[in-house]
Amino acid sequence: DQQVKQNSPSLSVQEGRISILNCDYTNSMFDYFLWYKKYPAEGPTFLISISSIKDKNEDGRFTVFLNKSAKHLSLHIVPSQPGDSAVYFCAASPGFGNEKLTFGTGTRLTIIP
Amino acid sequence: GAVVSQHPSRVICKSGTSVKIECRSLDFQATTMFWYRQFPKQSLMLMATSNEGSKATYEQGVEKDKFLINHASLTLSTLTVTSAHPEDSSFYICSARDGRKSYGYTFGSGTRLTVV
After folding, report:
1. What is the pLDDT along chain A (113 residues), one digit of tens a residue?
2. CB–CB of A106 and B43 under 8 A?
3. What is the DSSP string of B6-56?
4. Hey, which residues 86-105 in chain A have their CB within 8 Å of chain B?
């Protein structure tokens, strides 16, 4: 039972354009959401997070949007840069500070120069 | 920033042998560390939560006797895969939470285990 889903296994975007990565979840107990970036043979690196009391959080080129009613979140990267090419995982937890993270299956983002 | 060192990065072992993976928080104390496993093209799956000075908490379906976790100090947790079999071949990653930060788990660089 995949509680956090990333339905697009891969995405290609032209450099300078916007990259939009999507994530859906089914467990209504999830209250805190995170995005991680991962290069091959490395551990994930934290990018940005959002609490369910918000619908948007922005940090530089990265913005995460949360639609609680639809149980959907998205990560926007603008402008996209070649260094953004990686696998992106969304993750969810029952609350801020709750230790258990449930990860999605990941989306491989390729930025085309 | 918070750094988590994981060692070894890659290991090949024979079927039936045991392998130990170390996870160290280098510049902070981690009372809790987490062990994940990732199969190719799949998600990171939480295996167990490692608590300093006490027994680890395992997720459903994870064999406690096969995946031994020891968290003897505030900066070190180890995962031992005992009597490894080819199906244990996977990418194992640890993470730890830096209590000085409002949020954010720092992950190790992972260990690629291949059992032949």
Report:
1. 789 999 999 999 999 999 999 999 999 999 999 999 999 878 898 899 999 999 999 999 999 999 999 999 999 999 999 999 999 999 998 876 656 789 999 999 999 99
2. yes
3. EE-SEEEE-TT--EEEEEEESSS--SEEEEEEE-TTS-EEEEEEEETTS--
4. 89, 96-97, 99-105
